[in-house]
Amino acid sequence: GGYCVVSSCPRDCTECDEVEKTCTAECTSAASCNNVTCPTGWDCTIHCTGANACADITCESDSKCAITCSGTDACETVFCTAACKCDLDCAAGACNTPSCPTVGNGGNQVQCTTDGTNTSNCDSGHAAGCATC
Length: 133
Hints:
Blueprint: E1 15-17, E2 22-27, E3 36-38, E4 43-48, E5 55-59, E6 64-69, E7 75-79, E8 85-90, E9 102-103, E10 110-111
Parallel strand pairs: 2-4, 3-5, 4-6, 5-7, 6-8
Antiparallel strand pairs: 1-2, 9-10
């Protein structure tokens, strides 16, 4: 029809549904996905299986992320603080300490991690509110 259509999919998506705002990124080799960002309001599944595959990963506000890092230094830093849901499966030697969401405030603040500490993998099932937007 003479119109140019520009994709609004995030840069590193190997599969994407623009209507549903879902993205899957398969990063299997060094720098195959560099500094991956899951945009505001998107649902992203990110697999970093190659050594140095992803660098930094950022899940923006109101995003939902499921991240797997299994290659050596596959994910430098994972920033999920602003995400409304973040699950991280990080093998030994694959990630630095992640920044995970929290719920509550003051003395009632809880880290959304596997064990509630700020040094563990992000886990949206850890406490009530860790999986809501």
